[in-house]
Model the fold of this input.
Amino acid sequence: MGVLPSGLEDVISDGEELCRFLTQSNQFNTTMVKPSAFLPSTTSLETSVFRHGAKPEDQLWTIGTEALVGRTFYGAAIFRPSATHEAGLTLAVSEPPHRHAAIRGWPQYDHDPALTKAQQKAKATIIASKCDLLLRT
Amino acid sequence: MPAIVSAIGMTSYGSLGAYVRHSSAVSEVATRSREAAGSVVFHFEKSEACFGPLRRAQSELRTLAAECFCSGWDGEDAVGLHPSAVATAEEILRCLPGWVPFPEFAPEPDGSISLDWIQSRNRLFSLSVGKTHRLAYSWLNGSDKGYGVASFDGREVPSMVLEGIRSVLLNGSSAVRA
Amino acid sequence: MKLGNSPVVEVVLDIDCDLPPDFDLAGSEDRFREAFLSSYPKLRKSIVATHHVEVKAGSPTHTSAELGVSAHQHVSEDEKQIVQVRREGFSFNRLAPYSGLDACLPEIERAWRLFVDLALPIQIRLIRLRYINLLQLPVSQGQPMQLSDYFVHSPSLPDKDSLSFLRFLDQRVALENETGQVVEWVLASQGLDGNHWPVILDISSVSKNPPLVDAWEQIVGQIQSLRRLNNQVFSKSLTEKCLQLFQPLE
Done:
């Protein structure tokens, strides 16, 4: 097991907490993160996440500010690797930037974009149901 | 000879709206008729009592569309929301039966719009509206879950979608949108 | 119903289908154009345009439009007949002069088979037959128009002594219980036009009990059933006085 430039191990353990920064106010409501917040990029077919949990909170927001290059973000969805595993997806370390990881394994069917989206939504829904919403104050 | 024995209004506002928006007729007379119906629909939709909630939902949708019009709205490489997806989402709002509450909206990285009916984190129905008339959906109801694709003809919300919304929201009971 | 002076201005047959998920309307334009060229040499596109206007204080207004093709219209030389390839399926339009559905059916079949060969529809969702009629009702000088003279269930005024119609629009939708077919009719007028009062009677019936894509005899059967329903609504919506305007032949 090696060590990454961030100082983290190069394998994501089941006990780790991860976060997905929420950059648009409709990606969540008062009680939960919405599934669309986890849908993958259309170019990379990955969902960008970071290896940090809810605490310490100020460190979490610092990571977000640096990663999003000053762009406004509203909070973070906090989850564990088990959420992605239950959705049938994988997590992979992906530095730089520091602490960056990616949710991979999203389905894609070039001949049927709607079916692709439906299956991706189903997986995103599972992750969203397992994560906690943490809003910046 | 079969007889017409039932006259049903059947969401007559919705059917008038469909008459306005969906026509493969090309004659000038058809256009005139559509325009006449359109002015009725336009006038009808001014009613706060009848259409206030619809207008507010449309306003939320348009606000989202304006906010996410440009690509990169997520700070990454998200595609800007497709205007045709916004138009289709508005049509779906108009076609929702009275018992269905208006959904929450969310942008998706491929330029589609998500219409979400959320009862709790474990009971929700999510519908994607993109550039085509094929709608992708997924749902979660406790340990039950699923996904599918349904076609939207511009006149009626697909029955599979309505059933999915009903099962996660109403849990067998009836409710009517205020 | 055969009429010597038919008020039909347009007949539209829609066969809405599930097309393959990867069907590309824009990309298939050339193939369809070649297939329909001999009888429909003109091509038009039906465009859906959505516009975005962004106004921010202190910034120039930004406008953009997204254009999408919703249908290709293959038009005959005299522009009286159109075959449409739509995102939702197939349409056949016949504009006046209209000599009856039976005269159109052979060409409808030919065009439908070409569409099936190229678009490869998976299944039919519905068949819709629409008749758009323009009734030019005569108006006598100095005499008020009595709609009840022409329509069995005419729109009426709360007080016919003090009020007179400028325009009206009446839409009704009904279910034919035995067949499950749904018929919709719109009666619309926008007032006097010289010494006539033009009234649009737009009748459209739908069958959602679709046959298979390649079952042409069943498709024709449903079209004929929809025609019967449309004719029933037409003849029973109009008074005898009105029907006589169109010189019924039987």
